[in-house]
Amino acid sequence: MTDQQTGTKPSHWGRLYNGQILPVVTVILAIIVIWYAGAVYMNSERLIDGYERSKTDWEFSDLVEDSWSMERPILPAPQQIIEELDNTIIDKKITSKRSLVFHAWITLSSTLLGFAFGTLLGIVLAVGIVHVKTLDRSLMPWVIASQTIPILAIAPMIIVVLGHLGLTGLVPKAIISMYLCFFPITIGMVKGLRSPDILQLDLMKTYSASNNDVFWKLRIPASIPYLFTSLKVAVAISLVGAIVAELPTGAVQGLGARLLAGSYYGQTIQIWSALVVASVLGMVLVWAVGIAEKLTLRRMGGQS
User: Fold this and answer.
1) Quick one: DSSP state of residue 218?
2) In whole numbers, what is the pLDDT of the chain averaged over residues?
3) 301: phi > 0 → left, psi -120 to 50 → alpha, else beta; which?
4) pTM of structure
5) DSSP per-residue string spanning 229-244
6) Which end of the chain is more exposed for a tag (fewer CB within 10 A), N or C?
7) CA 38 to chain centre
8) What's the CA gap between 149 and 181, in Å, rounded?
9) Alpha carbon distance 111, 236 (integer Å)
10) Number of Cβ within a 10 Å radius of residue 89
Protein backbone atom coordinates (compact mmCIF):
# COMPACT_ATOMS: atom_id res chain seq x y z
CA MET A 1 0.00 0.00 0.00
CA THR A 2 1.16 3.55 -0.70
CA ASP A 3 1.74 6.20 1.97
CA GLN A 4 -1.39 8.01 0.75
CA GLN A 5 -3.55 4.87 1.17
CA THR A 6 -2.20 4.18 4.66
CA GLY A 7 -2.62 7.80 5.68
CA THR A 8 1.05 8.20 6.68
CA LYS A 9 3.19 11.14 5.66
CA PRO A 10 5.29 10.22 2.59
CA SER A 11 9.04 10.04 3.08
CA HIS A 12 11.50 12.21 1.16
CA TRP A 13 12.47 9.18 -0.97
CA GLY A 14 8.79 8.43 -1.61
CA ARG A 15 8.13 11.98 -2.74
CA LEU A 16 11.18 11.86 -5.03
CA TYR A 17 10.14 8.46 -6.47
CA ASN A 18 6.51 9.45 -7.04
CA GLY A 19 7.26 12.99 -8.23
CA GLN A 20 9.00 14.33 -11.33
CA ILE A 21 12.39 15.14 -9.84
CA LEU A 22 13.88 11.63 -9.84
CA PRO A 23 12.82 10.73 -13.42
CA VAL A 24 14.11 14.06 -14.73
CA VAL A 25 17.43 13.72 -12.88
CA THR A 26 17.78 10.12 -14.12
CA VAL A 27 17.26 11.18 -17.74
CA ILE A 28 19.74 14.07 -17.36
CA LEU A 29 22.39 11.77 -15.87
CA ALA A 30 21.84 9.26 -18.69
CA ILE A 31 22.24 12.01 -21.30
CA ILE A 32 25.47 13.23 -19.64
CA VAL A 33 26.96 9.71 -19.56
CA ILE A 34 26.04 9.10 -23.22
CA TRP A 35 27.41 12.55 -24.11
CA TYR A 36 30.81 11.86 -22.51
CA ALA A 37 31.01 8.46 -24.22
CA GLY A 38 29.99 10.06 -27.52
CA ALA A 39 32.72 12.70 -27.14
CA VAL A 40 35.36 9.95 -26.80
CA TYR A 41 33.96 8.05 -29.78
CA MET A 42 33.65 11.10 -32.05
CA ASN A 43 37.03 12.64 -31.21
CA SER A 44 39.09 9.45 -30.96
CA GLU A 45 39.82 9.04 -34.69
CA ARG A 46 41.48 12.44 -34.96
CA LEU A 47 43.42 11.92 -31.73
CA ILE A 48 44.65 8.45 -32.69
CA ASP A 49 45.78 9.80 -36.06
CA GLY A 50 47.73 12.49 -34.17
CA TYR A 51 49.32 9.91 -31.88
CA GLU A 52 50.46 7.81 -34.83
CA ARG A 53 51.90 10.77 -36.70
CA SER A 54 53.85 11.98 -33.68
CA LYS A 55 54.73 8.34 -32.77
CA THR A 56 53.37 8.87 -29.26
CA ASP A 57 52.64 5.91 -27.00
CA TRP A 58 49.13 6.17 -25.63
CA GLU A 59 46.66 4.32 -23.48
CA PHE A 60 42.90 4.43 -23.34
CA SER A 61 42.98 6.76 -20.32
CA ASP A 62 45.09 9.24 -22.35
CA LEU A 63 42.59 9.00 -25.21
CA VAL A 64 39.66 9.70 -22.86
CA GLU A 65 41.40 12.65 -21.19
CA ASP A 66 42.47 14.20 -24.49
CA SER A 67 38.99 13.65 -26.00
CA TRP A 68 37.44 15.74 -23.24
CA SER A 69 39.97 18.57 -23.52
CA MET A 70 40.47 19.10 -27.27
CA GLU A 71 40.64 22.71 -28.40
CA ARG A 72 38.46 22.10 -31.47
CA PRO A 73 36.64 18.81 -30.87
CA ILE A 74 34.04 17.33 -33.16
CA LEU A 75 31.83 16.82 -30.10
CA PRO A 76 32.88 18.82 -27.03
CA ALA A 77 32.52 17.39 -23.54
CA PRO A 78 29.85 18.96 -21.28
CA GLN A 79 32.44 20.61 -18.99
CA GLN A 80 33.99 22.38 -22.01
CA ILE A 81 30.59 23.91 -22.83
CA ILE A 82 30.13 24.93 -19.19
CA GLU A 83 33.57 26.59 -19.21
CA GLU A 84 32.66 28.45 -22.43
CA LEU A 85 29.35 29.56 -20.90
CA ASP A 86 31.22 30.76 -17.81
CA ASN A 87 33.71 32.71 -19.94
CA THR A 88 31.08 34.31 -22.20
CA ILE A 89 28.32 34.95 -19.64
CA ILE A 90 29.88 35.42 -16.21
CA ASP A 91 33.33 36.80 -17.09
CA LYS A 92 32.23 39.17 -19.87
CA LYS A 93 30.29 42.41 -19.51
CA ILE A 94 26.81 42.11 -20.99
CA THR A 95 27.64 45.02 -23.32
CA SER A 96 30.63 43.17 -24.76
CA LYS A 97 30.18 41.70 -28.22
CA ARG A 98 31.84 38.53 -26.92
CA SER A 99 29.13 38.11 -24.27
CA LEU A 100 26.42 35.53 -24.95
CA VAL A 101 24.01 37.66 -22.92
CA PHE A 102 24.51 40.47 -25.44
CA HIS A 103 23.93 38.13 -28.40
CA ALA A 104 20.93 36.50 -26.67
CA TRP A 105 19.37 39.93 -26.18
CA ILE A 106 19.77 40.75 -29.90
CA THR A 107 18.01 37.52 -30.84
CA LEU A 108 15.40 37.94 -28.12
CA SER A 109 14.45 41.43 -29.34
CA SER A 110 13.71 40.20 -32.88
CA THR A 111 11.98 37.13 -31.43
CA LEU A 112 9.59 39.19 -29.30
CA LEU A 113 8.85 41.66 -32.11
CA GLY A 114 8.22 38.81 -34.57
CA PHE A 115 6.08 37.02 -32.00
CA ALA A 116 4.00 40.19 -31.49
CA PHE A 117 3.58 40.60 -35.27
CA GLY A 118 2.72 36.91 -35.66
CA THR A 119 0.19 36.95 -32.82
CA LEU A 120 -1.58 39.99 -34.25
CA LEU A 121 -1.59 38.58 -37.79
CA GLY A 122 -2.72 35.12 -36.64
CA ILE A 123 -5.64 36.49 -34.61
CA VAL A 124 -6.78 38.85 -37.38
CA LEU A 125 -6.65 36.06 -39.98
CA ALA A 126 -8.54 33.66 -37.68
CA VAL A 127 -11.31 36.17 -37.01
CA GLY A 128 -11.64 36.83 -40.73
CA ILE A 129 -11.66 33.12 -41.62
CA VAL A 130 -14.35 32.32 -39.02
CA HIS A 131 -16.68 35.20 -39.91
CA VAL A 132 -16.21 35.56 -43.67
CA LYS A 133 -16.93 32.45 -45.75
CA THR A 134 -15.01 33.83 -48.73
CA LEU A 135 -11.88 34.15 -46.61
CA ASP A 136 -12.43 30.65 -45.21
CA ARG A 137 -12.48 29.18 -48.73
CA SER A 138 -9.78 31.39 -50.27
CA LEU A 139 -7.38 32.27 -47.46
CA MET A 140 -7.11 29.07 -45.43
CA PRO A 141 -5.44 27.01 -48.22
CA TRP A 142 -2.85 29.76 -48.68
CA VAL A 143 -2.19 29.90 -44.94
CA ILE A 144 -1.45 26.16 -44.96
CA ALA A 145 0.54 26.35 -48.20
CA SER A 146 2.72 29.14 -46.77
CA GLN A 147 4.27 26.68 -44.33
CA THR A 148 5.32 24.26 -47.06
CA ILE A 149 8.01 26.68 -48.26
CA PRO A 150 11.31 26.07 -46.39
CA ILE A 151 12.21 29.12 -44.33
CA LEU A 152 15.88 28.80 -45.34
CA ALA A 153 14.81 29.25 -48.98
CA ILE A 154 12.54 32.23 -48.46
CA ALA A 155 14.56 34.10 -45.82
CA PRO A 156 17.22 35.50 -48.22
CA MET A 157 14.47 36.76 -50.58
CA ILE A 158 12.70 38.51 -47.69
CA ILE A 159 15.99 40.13 -46.64
CA VAL A 160 16.69 41.33 -50.21
CA VAL A 161 13.16 42.69 -50.82
CA LEU A 162 12.92 44.46 -47.48
CA GLY A 163 16.46 45.81 -47.88
CA HIS A 164 15.43 47.29 -51.26
CA LEU A 165 12.51 48.98 -49.46
CA GLY A 166 14.88 50.43 -46.90
CA LEU A 167 13.98 48.06 -44.06
CA THR A 168 17.12 46.70 -42.42
CA GLY A 169 18.20 45.63 -38.97
CA LEU A 170 15.61 44.30 -36.58
CA VAL A 171 12.47 44.44 -38.75
CA PRO A 172 13.46 41.90 -41.49
CA LYS A 173 14.44 39.35 -38.84
CA ALA A 174 11.17 39.97 -36.99
CA ILE A 175 9.16 39.48 -40.21
CA ILE A 176 10.87 36.13 -40.89
CA SER A 177 10.10 35.16 -37.30
CA MET A 178 6.48 36.27 -37.81
CA TYR A 179 6.26 34.15 -40.98
CA LEU A 180 6.92 31.03 -38.95
CA CYS A 181 4.89 31.76 -35.84
CA PHE A 182 1.61 33.13 -37.23
CA PHE A 183 0.53 29.72 -38.57
CA PRO A 184 -0.08 27.83 -35.27
CA ILE A 185 -1.82 30.90 -33.85
CA THR A 186 -4.16 31.11 -36.83
CA ILE A 187 -5.01 27.40 -36.71
CA GLY A 188 -5.49 27.35 -32.93
CA MET A 189 -7.54 30.52 -32.89
CA VAL A 190 -9.81 29.29 -35.72
CA LYS A 191 -10.44 26.08 -33.80
CA GLY A 192 -11.09 28.02 -30.61
CA LEU A 193 -13.51 30.49 -32.20
CA ARG A 194 -15.44 27.57 -33.69
CA SER A 195 -15.42 25.54 -30.47
CA PRO A 196 -18.81 26.75 -29.07
CA ASP A 197 -21.41 24.12 -29.95
CA ILE A 198 -24.78 24.72 -31.59
CA LEU A 199 -26.65 24.65 -28.25
CA GLN A 200 -24.55 27.48 -26.88
CA LEU A 201 -25.06 29.53 -30.05
CA ASP A 202 -28.83 28.87 -29.97
CA LEU A 203 -28.93 29.92 -26.31
CA MET A 204 -27.29 33.22 -27.22
CA LYS A 205 -29.89 33.73 -29.96
CA THR A 206 -32.74 33.15 -27.47
CA TYR A 207 -31.30 36.05 -25.48
CA SER A 208 -31.41 38.16 -28.67
CA ALA A 209 -27.65 38.48 -28.60
CA SER A 210 -26.12 40.29 -31.52
CA ASN A 211 -23.21 38.89 -33.55
CA ASN A 212 -20.99 41.28 -31.62
CA ASP A 213 -22.22 39.83 -28.30
CA VAL A 214 -21.71 36.25 -29.52
CA PHE A 215 -18.18 37.11 -30.58
CA TRP A 216 -17.03 38.88 -27.42
CA LYS A 217 -19.03 36.92 -24.80
CA LEU A 218 -18.94 33.40 -26.25
CA ARG A 219 -16.41 32.85 -29.02
CA ILE A 220 -13.49 34.85 -27.56
CA PRO A 221 -13.66 33.29 -24.04
CA ALA A 222 -13.98 29.83 -25.60
CA SER A 223 -10.92 30.45 -27.77
CA ILE A 224 -8.54 31.57 -24.99
CA PRO A 225 -7.29 28.05 -24.01
CA TYR A 226 -6.71 27.23 -27.69
CA LEU A 227 -4.93 30.55 -28.19
CA PHE A 228 -2.47 30.02 -25.33
CA THR A 229 -1.71 26.47 -26.47
CA SER A 230 -0.87 27.91 -29.88
CA LEU A 231 1.16 30.74 -28.35
CA LYS A 232 3.41 28.25 -26.53
CA VAL A 233 4.23 26.61 -29.85
CA ALA A 234 4.48 29.92 -31.67
CA VAL A 235 6.92 31.59 -29.26
CA ALA A 236 9.36 28.66 -29.58
CA ILE A 237 9.05 28.75 -33.39
CA SER A 238 9.49 32.51 -33.30
CA LEU A 239 12.89 32.03 -31.61
CA VAL A 240 13.90 29.54 -34.30
CA GLY A 241 12.79 32.01 -36.99
CA ALA A 242 14.85 34.81 -35.43
CA ILE A 243 17.97 32.63 -35.32
CA VAL A 244 17.45 31.44 -38.91
CA ALA A 245 16.91 35.05 -40.02
CA GLU A 246 20.36 36.00 -38.72
CA LEU A 247 22.08 33.47 -40.98
CA PRO A 248 21.45 34.90 -44.51
CA THR A 249 21.81 38.51 -43.33
CA GLY A 250 25.47 38.03 -42.48
CA ALA A 251 24.67 39.40 -39.05
CA VAL A 252 27.54 39.84 -36.61
CA GLN A 253 25.27 40.03 -33.58
CA GLY A 254 22.81 37.47 -32.24
CA LEU A 255 22.86 33.75 -31.48
CA GLY A 256 22.55 32.94 -35.19
CA ALA A 257 25.67 35.01 -35.86
CA ARG A 258 27.51 33.06 -33.13
CA LEU A 259 26.46 29.78 -34.75
CA LEU A 260 27.58 31.02 -38.16
CA ALA A 261 30.95 32.28 -36.87
CA GLY A 262 31.49 29.02 -35.01
CA SER A 263 30.86 26.98 -38.15
CA TYR A 264 33.22 29.17 -40.22
CA TYR A 265 36.14 28.74 -37.81
CA GLY A 266 35.41 25.22 -36.58
CA GLN A 267 34.65 26.44 -33.04
CA THR A 268 32.27 23.68 -32.05
CA ILE A 269 32.39 24.67 -28.38
CA GLN A 270 31.13 28.13 -29.35
CA ILE A 271 28.35 26.55 -31.43
CA TRP A 272 27.22 24.27 -28.60
CA SER A 273 27.28 27.07 -26.01
CA ALA A 274 25.10 29.22 -28.29
CA LEU A 275 22.73 26.26 -28.72
CA VAL A 276 22.49 25.82 -24.94
CA VAL A 277 21.67 29.51 -24.47
CA ALA A 278 19.06 29.33 -27.25
CA SER A 279 17.48 26.28 -25.59
CA VAL A 280 17.31 28.00 -22.20
CA LEU A 281 15.89 31.11 -23.86
CA GLY A 282 13.19 29.02 -25.56
CA MET A 283 12.24 27.32 -22.29
CA VAL A 284 11.99 30.70 -20.52
CA LEU A 285 9.74 32.08 -23.27
CA VAL A 286 7.42 29.06 -23.17
CA TRP A 287 7.36 29.25 -19.37
CA ALA A 288 6.45 32.96 -19.53
CA VAL A 289 3.53 32.20 -21.88
CA GLY A 290 2.43 29.43 -19.49
CA ILE A 291 2.43 31.90 -16.57
CA ALA A 292 0.39 34.36 -18.64
CA GLU A 293 -2.06 31.53 -19.45
CA LYS A 294 -2.53 30.63 -15.79
CA LEU A 295 -3.10 34.26 -14.79
CA THR A 296 -5.55 34.85 -17.64
CA LEU A 297 -7.58 31.68 -17.00
CA ARG A 298 -7.63 32.38 -13.27
CA ARG A 299 -8.90 35.92 -13.96
CA MET A 300 -11.61 34.45 -16.24
CA GLY A 301 -12.69 32.10 -13.45
CA GLY A 302 -11.48 28.95 -15.15
CA GLN A 303 -9.12 26.24 -13.98
CA SER A 304 -5.44 27.22 -14.38
Assistant:
1) I
2) 87
3) left
4) 0.83
5) HHHHHHHHHHHHHHHH
6) N
7) 25
8) 14
9) 9
10) 16
